[in-house]
Every structure is written in structure tokens, then in C-alpha cells.
Specification:
2 copies of one chain form a homodimer. Chain A has 7 helices and no strands. With 252 residues, chain A is mainly alpha-helical. Chain A has a single domain, classed as Up-down Bundle (Four Helix Bundle (Hemerythrin (Met), subunit A)), CATH 1.20.120. In chain A, helix 1 packs antiparallel against helix 2, helix 1 runs antiparallel to helix 6 and helix 2 packs antiparallel against helix 3. The longest helix of chain A has 38 residues. Chains A and B meet through helix 4, helix 5 and helix 6 of A and helix 4, helix 5 and helix 6 of B. Chains A, B: It comes from Loxodonta africana (African elephant).
């Protein structure tokens, strides 16, 4: 039920799902803070509490902000394409910087404590996701924001960008769950099986993290909620490979 | 580049990706077996080794077979729709039964050992995924295989079925990673950080599990790899809601 070029009505249901996603995202951030505050002594850079900077930054950056960056094209449906692109790119920059702080925090903490780095599945997934995220941003920037790429190149890269964007987001959620599990098992050990309040809170946090991932993915993939076609996109969607080769569009 | 009704050429690239997915899937199953054999004493029903039935069954059922069931419509492109549907449904039945054996194994093992059930994030996610999988199968069966549903109902439910199918599969992969991590931390504890062979093997297994999920998702979501439209699907894709209301199609 798309309505062609120009200002289109917002699809029925979309605002509720977006509102729900934001509620979930903010709940997840707040709950991560509550978990760290209630059961892990809170947050500080210059002490053993430095570790706690890691989960908070990762959840704000690579879960909440990354998720919201993916939703930009669904939420800002009638703004100029270029404005939406810049917002999408900027949100990812913020997410990246916050995640970088979170990464520095954990490496720094390990160094102070003399712990080994990068031995766990969580850390392997984390480094992989972070690298992919950086590469995806660079490639996305060069194709879509840097004015050099042709319509044809953009049209061929676009579905790949979307697929890998969604995949990196889902891998981020998965990595967060692994990290949460690790933090629980290291501290609680066999006490985990006695349904301690921290364990139950963290389990609920884990489920909400997964829910946030699913809701963002749902909004992103629903065909009739895609951004209405505008001039540039229509050209892209026709998938003619050579016709516009070398032609560099200045979007809107 | 879809080619309308009837026998269509297999899209370029698809067979390689499918072959790669199968190689990954079989490697994951073999590696799970190797991990359990080399480091966990192998598999048996009537001993403490009963636990090991759980990861093996889950990986065969809810990862490999579930993933392959999702690919059926991409691989069997020109067979009758009904045949493909039955194969899709049957693979899910096999996956479900094998996963059920895996579930019984772990509950039985916990009971013998006097361990608590359902306290961990892995178990919460697992029960959720297993329940969703069962509901999805039931609903899918009543809409698509049971002859009662109209074109209109099927066309409205179809995108939801696909989205939730992919989501349940991804949640299964995530749950498997959580379980793997749990098994490692319970047994290895701080030895995990010394890069023991078991830890490294299991980390690689975790990455390959995630890779299998990504490759299946890629094959599933690539627009130009979708099954070519046949008569029934064309009717569905037109999305006319009332025209065929009450009309029950006999597929093919």
C-alpha cells in the first residue's frame, strides 16, 4: 500500500511499532544501568568499576543507537533523502564512538587486572562485529554520502548494505547476550541456579535485548513500511546497470 | 531478474551459496560431535553423558535442519508448490522431534543430578524459542497445508510466517551460542582464559554457528533468489483481500 512519489501518509501501525521499539530500547539502557548500579557497584573510569563502563557503552552504542540508526529511513519518510542519510550516518558515528569508549574501558580494565584479552567467544564475536561495523560505515559512506558513486553502483550495493547492516545489528545483540551471560556466570557461578535477584534481572534484560532486536528487524523488513520511492530511489529500483554509469547524483 | 511462470533458470550464485551453507551446516554438526567426543566423554542416554545428547540434538534439529527447512523454497524452485510445502513442513517436523529428544535429555539429566531447571538465560531463551517454533509450525500448517484457508488469508499471513520463521531460526542460533558459552564457563572456569584447546575449538564452533545463520539468512532474503512466481503465488502477490475471500485453493 505504498503511495508513490512525494508526501505519503504514514503507514498504519508503524508509529506504534516505532514507539514500542523506543520504549524497549530505553528500558534496556535503563535496566543495564540499574543492573550495574544495584549489583555491580556502579560506574567509574578510575577504579575496578571501569569494567562496568563496557556493558553500558555497548548497550547504548551498539544496541540502542545502532538500532535507531537502522530505523531512520522508516521514521523520517518525507524528509529530503540527503538529510535522512546524514542522520543515519551520524547516529552510526555516535554509536561507534560510544562503543569505542566501551572497548577501551574493557581492555584498560583487563590490563590493570592482568587478565588475558580476547580468549572468549564473546570477545571474538565482539571484535568481529566491531570491525564489520567500522568497515560497513566506511563502505556505506563512500557509496552513499561521498558524491563519487554512480546510480548503478549504488543500486547494486544498496541491498548488500541493508543486509549486512541488519546482520551486524543482530550480531551485536547476540554478542551482548553472550557478554551478559559471561558476566553472570563469572560472578554468580552456581548461585545462578538459585534464582538470585541479579540472575533474574539479567535474564529479563537478556530477553528484552532480544525483543528490541526482533522489533527493529520487524519494522525494517516489513515491505509496506519501506520509505516511499522518491526520484532518486525510483531510478535505482529500475536496476539498469549501464544506462546511468558514471552519472553521479546530487541527492535532492 | 525473475523469469516469470514455469521452469526458470537457477539464479547465478545461488548454488554456490547453498553448497556453502550445507558445508557450514555439516561442519557445525561434525564439530559439535567432535567437541563432545574429544572433551566431554561422548554421548550416551543412560549415564552422566546424557547431558551431551542435548547440544548435539539441538544443533542437528534447531540449527541444521531448521536452517535447511527455510531454504527449501530457494533450492526446489521448479517442483510443484505442494511438494515443496510438504518437504518444508516435514523437515520442520524432523527438526522438532530431534530437538524434543534434546530437551528431554537435559531435563532428565538435571533431574538425575538434582540440578535446578530453567534458571539461566539460555534456558529461558530455549523454552521461548521451542514454544514459538511449535506455534509457528501449527499456525503454518493450518494456513498453508490444511486446505481450509483462503487465498486472501494466506496472502496476509505469508509475510508474517516468513518473518517469524527467520526470527525463530536466528533466536535458535543465539540460544545455541548462549548454551555453548554456559557449557564452557561451567567446565573451564578461569582456565577458559588460558586458551585451552577446548575453549578455542568451542569458540570456532560458535563463530561457525553464527556464520551458518548469516548465510542461511542471506540466501533467504536475497530478492532475486526468491522462488519464481507460479499461478498460486501470483494470485497471492496481488494482495487482493476480498476478491477471493472464502475461495480455498488446491495448490498446483
Amino acid at each position: 500500500m505504498e503511495s508513490g512519489v512525494g508526501t505519503a501518509a504514514v503507514p498504519r501501525g508503524l508509529p506504534y511499532y516505532v514507539a514500542f521499539s523506543q520504549l524497549l530500547g530505553l528500558t534496556v539502557v535503563a535496566m543495564t544501568g540499574a543492573w550495574l548500579g544495584l549489583y555491580r557497584g556502579g560506574i567509574a573510569w578510575k577504579s575496578a568499576l571501569q569494567f562496568n563502563v563496557h556493558p553500558l557503552c555497548m548497550v547504548i552504542g551498539l544496541i540502542f543507537l545502532q538500532g535507531d540508526a537502522l530505523l531512520v529511513y522508516r521514521v523520517f519518510r518525507n524528509e529530503a533523502k540527503r538529510t535522512t542519510k546524514v542522520l543515519h550516518g551520524l547516529l552510526h558515528v555516535f554509536a561507534f564512538i560510544i562503543a569505542l569508549v566501551g572497548l577501551v574501558a574493557v581492555f584498560n580494565y583487563h590490563k590493570k587486572k592482568g587478565y588475558a584479552d580476547l580468549y572468549s567467544l564473546h570477545s571474538w564475536c565482539g571484535i568481529l562485529v566491531f570491525t564489520l561495523y567500522f568497515v560497513q560505515w566506511l563502505v556505506g559512506f563512500s557509496f552513499f554520502l561521498f558524491p563519487g558513486a554512480s546510480f548503478s553502483l549504488r543500486s547494486r550495493y544498496r541491498p548488500q548494505h541493508i543486509f549486512f547492516g541488519a546482520t551486524i545489528f543482530l550480531l551485536s545483540v547476540g554478542t551482548a547476550l553472550l557478554g551478559l551471560k559471561e558476566a553472570l556466570l563469572f560472578k554468580l557461578g552456581t548461585k545462578y541456579s538459585t534464582f538470585t535477584p541479579e540472575g533474574v534481572l539479567a535474564n529479563i534484560l537478556g530477553l528484552l535485548l532480544a525483543c528490541f532486536g526482533v522489533v527493529v528487524l520487524y519494522i525494517l523488513t516489513r515491505a509496506d513500511w519501506k520509505r516511499p520511492s522518491q526520484a532518486e530511489e525510483q531510478a535505482l529500483s529500475m536496476d539498469f546497470k549501464t544506462l546511468t554509469e558514471g552519472d553521479s547524483p546530487s541527492s535532492q
